[in-house]
């Protein structure tokens, strides 16, 4: 037996017979195959027209995490602190206390109130009935609405409003510290009350844009909007920008593909087949009842990239076969026979990379995994079946044949020198160098964080409108937009007991010491003020009483967002400096530490709600699932590779460069200040899938030459002349294509573009250089000879 057979799978009778049967069925019935593809394509293209953007708050959160389970249990009480939009109405001409501005604020409030999806009962602003004030006088406690019933816009009424705002302690929360703007807090319902369907954030933000922002901007009032729904709305609005860069990338790749093969037929058929794959994917999504989520909106390009990667192999081998004198039909059949197994295996490996994302229990990531897997499923049919049949008709143009002849007679000096990497002296150096890189990557990736690392919305650039609005709010208001809510739960009607109040007070004081917590709001702070107010405002009485009658009176009139009707849940709201991963981790650990150190008895301290609390849960799920996802990706793809090559040595040689590439990618993310989150996870999974494509194709070609009795270096050189050129071209072309994304207005698209550039190039270099070096060392001296 030839020594290099350790690295070479033996032909499997069943598999070879299956390939032969498929080849005959495909090429003997070409008209029927094309007709079938035409009918299915038209149907899916028609369904693709029905595809709509789709976003849901519930799909953005890990619904099975204990934090989220606690939130959902008390959702009615916690909604005003979780899925909230803050509409800031600014008076550019001065303070808000003018007849004209107050009337405009009322009009804005009324317009927002009637937008579908708004939780109207919990909406709050200066003009809503739930904005009340109270004060201690010699006659007792007085209270009333911030804007009184007798308000008429006069100077006296405006002065009264100013005083009421101070009495209600709304300065810094609902009114800016400089008194030049006011906030309308807009909690949202998960489902549209008119349709019963999940709230359409795109439609909601468009309505808000036209009826509020644009309408009142024309009246000289500045409107700013901050919140989860606005982030999603802005991402959906940026779909045109994403589509533009997608089109630029397609055109650029098409031009480079033509320059590579100099055959307009092959270029046109390849690009159209890849675009058909994307359209068919979108049609299947619509057919299955899915929409296109903002975080999945880049997946169609990834499927296009995968399609190009495989199609280039087909073109390259087709031209090579035509150069040997075969007709277009014969060359297509030989190409199909040579690429069917490695191509299908590579596509299955791509699918595995995406399916592994299903282990992350976040709806939007799971939908992304399904979306991408459907795309790969479609690609198997379009690349493995449709493209070879189309190529059997269009063939290769004379200019393309001339290009192939020039390559065939080229001495390939670059590849001849590159083939030396399989020599032991060079291979050992390359492996040692890769180990050094691996060590450097491990060191650099220690700084990799989970979650957001910047203030505002990291999906957008700092100068984006949303981040500017968020920066304005943080600058002019005391209370932060990053709210972390701890649920203090008691038996019914016991939230105002002294023991409960005392424990909650200790918790609040403890959390105020945590770095990043700026202020606290809760029922118990309101109760302390009530006790103080009912005792002539004497500071000595600003403590909880063991007299239950006093405690019950203090709870009377507390706002609905501070306690539920049964007096069994009292949310403790923490306003944070930011929502960075470190801040959220410190807060969550502080709450857990307090719970461990104190005997809570019948009382429970539950985490977490608010936008920051939900993000903390999301970060925890990603942190625990990301490693599992990567392990599954590498294990399952390794099994796929092992199934094809029947060799542990080959499997290791193919997977080692991919692991190095993944570590280096994470190192770059850490140095760029990018956290592992919903937007970046798919890149890591994709990197492994695309990388293994290169390796499978290259080694499959190389093993054919090994079977012919060539030496290891000669076999590698011959593989480089055919498949190696395709791998190099694909890596460079895709890298150049996505490099244009760095100019996108969306920061997360620009970041993904940069990461994909690095992955495409690293995987290409790994397949062309490191893979053969490792494989040659594992093959042993006899096999190399």
What's the arrangement of secondary structure elements?
Elements: H1 13-27, H2 30-48, H3 66-73, H4 75-78, E1 84-90, H5 99-113, E2 132-137, E3 140-145, H6 155-167, E4 181-187, H7 201-217, E5 222-227, H8 228-237, H9 239-261, H10 264-287, H11 299-323, H12 328-355, H13 363-394, H14 398-408, H15 413-418, H16 424-444, H17 465-476, E6 482-489, H18 498-512, E7 517-521, H19 523-533, H20 548-555, E8 569-576, H21 581-597, E9 604-609, H22 610-645, H23 648-672, H24 681-707, H25 712-739, H26 747-779, H27 781-784
Antiparallel strand pairs: 1-4, 1-5, 2-3, 6-8, 6-9, 7-8
Number of helices: 27
User: Between the first and last Cα atoms, what is the distance in angstroms?
Assistant: 14 Å
Q: State the domain count.
A: 4
Low-confidence stretches: 1-12, 781-785
Strand content: 5-15%
Question: What is the average per-residue confidence, as pLDDT, rounded to a whole number?
Answer: 83
Quick one: CATH superfamily of the largest domain?
Multidrug efflux transporter AcrB transmembrane domain
Largest sheet report: 4 strands, antiparallel
Give me the secondary-structure category. Answer: alpha+beta
The first-level CATH class of the largest domain is given as Mainly Alpha
Order of adjacent strands in the largest pleated sheet: 7-8-6-9
Please tell me the CATH architecture of the largest domain by its name.
Up-down Bundle
Structural Rg: 32 Å
Helicity level: 55-70%
């Amino acid at each position: 037996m030839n020594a290099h057979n350790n690295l070479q799978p033996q032909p499997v009778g069943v598999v070879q017979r299956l390939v032969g049967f498929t080849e005959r069925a495909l090429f003997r019935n070409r008209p029927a195959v094309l007709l079938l593809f035409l009918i299915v394509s038209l149907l899916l293209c028609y369904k693709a027209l029905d595809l709509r953007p789709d976003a849901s708050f519930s799909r953005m959160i890990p619904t099975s995490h204990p934090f989220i389970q606690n939130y959902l249990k008390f959702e009615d009480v916690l909604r005003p602190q979780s899925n909230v939009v803050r509409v800031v109405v600014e008076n550019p001409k001065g303070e808000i206390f003018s007849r004209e501005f107050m009337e405009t604020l009322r009009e804005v409030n009324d317009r927002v109130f009637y937008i579908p999806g708004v939780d109207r009962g919990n909406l709050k602003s200066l003009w809503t009935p739930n904005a009340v004030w109270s004060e201690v006088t010699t006659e007792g406690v007085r209270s009333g609405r911030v804007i009184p019933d007798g308000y008429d816009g006069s100077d006296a009424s405006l002065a009264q409003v100013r005083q009421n705002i101070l009495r209600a302690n709304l300065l810094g929360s609902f009114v800016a510290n400089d008194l030049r703007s006011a906030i309308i807090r807009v909690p949202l319902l998960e489902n549209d009350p008119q349709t019963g369907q999940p709230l359409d954030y795109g439609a909601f933000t468009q309505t808000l844009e036209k009826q509020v922002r644009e309408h009142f901007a024309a009246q000289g009032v500045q409107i700013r909007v901050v919140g989860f729904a606005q982030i999603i709305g802005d991402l959906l609005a940026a779909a045109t920008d994403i589509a533009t860069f997608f089109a630029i990338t397609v055109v650029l790749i098409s031009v480079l593909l033509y320059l590579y093969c100099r055959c307009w037929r092959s270029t046109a058929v390849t690009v159209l087949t890849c675009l058909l794959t994307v359209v068919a994917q979108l049609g299947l999504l619509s057919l299955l009842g899915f929409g296109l989520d903002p975080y999945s909106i880049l997946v169609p390009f990834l499927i296009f990239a995968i399609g190009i990667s495989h199609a280039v192999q087909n073109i390259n081998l087709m031209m090579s076969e035509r150069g040997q004198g075969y007709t277009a039909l014969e060359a297509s059949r030989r190409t199909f026979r040579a690429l069917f197994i490695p191509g299908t295996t590579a596509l299955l490996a791509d699918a595995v990379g995406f399916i592994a994302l299903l282990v992350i229990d976040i709806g939007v990531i799971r939908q992304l995994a399904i979306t991408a897997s459907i795309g790969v499923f479609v690609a198997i049919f379009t690349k493995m079946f449709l493209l070879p049949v189309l190529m059997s008709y269009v063939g290769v143009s004379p200019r393309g044949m001339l290009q192939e002849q020039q390559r065939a007679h080229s001495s390939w000096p670059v590849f001849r020198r590159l083939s030396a990497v399989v020599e032991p002296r060079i291979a050992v150096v390359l492996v040692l160098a890769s180990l050094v890189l691996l060590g450097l990557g491990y060191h650099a990736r220690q700084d990799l964080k989970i979650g957001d690392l910047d203030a505002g919305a990291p999906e957008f650039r700092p100068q984006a409108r949303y981040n500017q609005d968020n920066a304005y709010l943080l600058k002019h208001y005391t209370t932060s937009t990053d709210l972390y809510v701890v649920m203090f739960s008691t038996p019914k009607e016991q939230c105002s007991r002294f023991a409960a109040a005392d424990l909650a007070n200790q918790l609040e004081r403890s959390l105020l010491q945590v770095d990043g917590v700026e202020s606290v709001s809760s029922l118990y702070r309101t109760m302390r003020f009530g006790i103080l107010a009912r005792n002539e405002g004497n500071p000595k009485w600003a403590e909880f009483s063991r007299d239950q009658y006093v405690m019950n009176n203090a709870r009377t009139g507390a706002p609905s967002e501070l306690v539920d009707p049964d007096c069994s849940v009292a949310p403790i709201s923490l306003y944070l400096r930011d929502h960075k991963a470190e801040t959220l981790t410190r807060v969550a650990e502080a709450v857990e530490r307090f719970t461990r150190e104190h005997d809570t008895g019948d009382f429970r301290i539950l985490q977490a709600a608010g936008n920051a609390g939900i993000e903390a849960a999301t970060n925890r799920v990603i942190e625990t699932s990301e490693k599992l996802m990567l392990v599954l990706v590498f294990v399952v793809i390794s099994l796929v590779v092992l199934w094809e090559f029947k060799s542990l040595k080959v499997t290791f040689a193919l997977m080692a460069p991919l692991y190095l590439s993944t570590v280096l990618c994470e190192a770059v993310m850490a140095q760029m200040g990018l956290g592992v989150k919903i937007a970046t996870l798919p890149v890591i999974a994709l990197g492994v899938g695309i990388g293994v494509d290169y390796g499978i194709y290259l080694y499959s070609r190389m093993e054919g030459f090994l079977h012919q009795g060539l030496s290891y270096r000669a076999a590698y050189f011959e593989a480089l002349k055919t498949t190696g050129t395709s791998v190099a071209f694909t890596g460079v072309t895709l890298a150049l294509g996505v490099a244009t994304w760095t100019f996108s207005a969306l920061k997360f698209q620009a970041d993904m573009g940069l990461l994909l550039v690095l992955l495409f190039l690293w995987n290409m270099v790994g397949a062309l250089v490191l893979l053969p070096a490792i494989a040659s060392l594992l093959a042993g001296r006899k096999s190399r000879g």
